[in-house]
């Protein structure tokens, strides 16, 4: 299953709704799981990024759909990075010309 690192930055709306963040996060995790996306980790951070999530999805389209549904709520802007394990990277390197 593809793995993703998602960097999230709170919007002004997200800051205004910060008190509901834990409840919304749990609801989003349940919806993601039902759609085929597993939240491996969720880390609230200080600095330029407010939240880092590690996700596994059944496929890229499912990951994109779940992340777009989350973004549509208006609380976060996201940047999504496809992550590769060492084994996956070995396969990529083996395909180099």
What does this structure look like?
The protein is α+β, with helices and mostly antiparallel strands. It has a single domain (3-94), classed as Lrp/AsnC effector binding domain/regulation of amino acid metabolism (RAM) domain (Alpha-Beta Plaits). It contains four helices and four strands. The chain has helices at 12-16, 21-35, 60-71, 86-94, and strands at residues 3-10, 37-44, 51-57, 76-83. Strands 2-3-1-4 form a four-stranded antiparallel beta sheet. A hairpin with a 6-residue loop joins β2 and β3 (51-57). The longest helix is centred in the first third of the chain and has 15 residues, at 21-35.
Q: What's this, in brief?
A:
The chain is α+β, with helices and mostly antiparallel strands.
